[in-house]
Amino acid sequence: MKKKWFMLGSALGISSVMMITTGVSAFASTSGYDAYKSALKNTRTIQNVAVQASATLQDNGNVLASATGNFKISLDKQAASGSADVKVNGATQSVNFYKQNDQTVLKTSSSDTYYVGQERGKDKNKHDTKETLDPQIPQQVETVIDALVGNLKDYVTVNAKSDGSKEIAAQLDNSQIPTVVNAIAPIVIKHASNHEQNREKKDNNDAKQFPFNRDVLNVQTPQLTQDIKIEKVAFKANVNAANYIEHQEADITVSGKDASGTAHQVTVHLQANLMGYNTTTPDTIDLSGKKVQQMDNRHHGKFHDDNE
């Protein structure tokens, strides 16, 4: 995918980090620790699940890009399927995907071709991390994150409902966000902007490698270069009566100026709904008789014709 998406990916990455950080910070509060930690551990034990997810990127109130997706994931069978709809500046693109038999299959709505990537060098005996992961590592990670978030725990609220479900939430403004986070954010965003600018020309030359609508891939994210800071972070997680996390969302707003001095306020919204715990089976696709083109894993997921 074109590196125009790198900025969006970086924003989503920061949002995800903040989502996880504020979520884990609930561990440190007496009321939220046991409830969220128990639900998180319980959710991690599922073997398969269905997910509805969405993301939106806005600049000064204008929607630059949005995406929605529906996915079926089977951890025990190492399989998945799903579809995603992406909209950028009025241009739309739909993509279906399947992960099956050590293959990843992609098909866009604008083509009748199925793009197939074969996993290489995979050791099937090593995919079960339970056998290789040091059991102390999760606890160590939790301890480090808890120390980093500091007094964020004071802003986490837990609302226990009569049906046995719980809602854990936190909302932080700029003055409440840890100094270390606001110090790192400008570095990450500037690096993302520079990376995008350096790769833009090459990406345009390589556009023919991708089966996607070029307009959809050409999201014009603002190139923030100065006065960058995180303005607001909001987080919410819903835990159902069966002690599974069934909904989680996060919003992050970043302000700054581009090279011309124009002010921007960029907001990213992420959310995911989980359902069908341990009752979900991913869909499969039979490629017999279909037009197939191979993806070249050696070139970072680019595509090539078998006849080349």
Order of helices and strands: HHEEEEEEHEEHHEEEEE
Report the total helices.
5
What fraction strand? 35-45%
β-strand number: 13
Total individual domains:
1
Task: Show the helix and strand layout.
Blueprint: H1 5-25, H2 30-43, E1 48-59, E2 62-74, E3 79-88, E4 91-100, E5 103-108, E6 113-118, H3 136-149, E7 156-160, E8 166-173, H4 179-205, H5 214-217, E9 226-239, E10 245-257, E11 263-275, E12 291-296, E13 302-304
Parallel strand pairs: 6-12
Antiparallel strand pairs: 1-2, 1-11, 2-3, 3-4, 4-5, 5-6, 7-8, 8-9, 9-10, 10-11, 12-13
Helix pairs in contact: 1-3, 1-4
Overview of this protein structure:
The chain is α+β, with helices and mostly antiparallel strands and 308 residues long. It has one domain. The protein is built from five helices and 13 strands. It has a 13-stranded mixed sheet with strand order 7-8-9-10-11-1-2-3-4-5-6-12-13. A hairpin with a 2-residue loop joins strand 3 (79-88) and strand 4 (91-100). Helix 1 (5-25) packs antiparallel against helix 4 (179-205). The longest helix has 27 residues, at 179-205. It starts with a helix and ends with a strand.
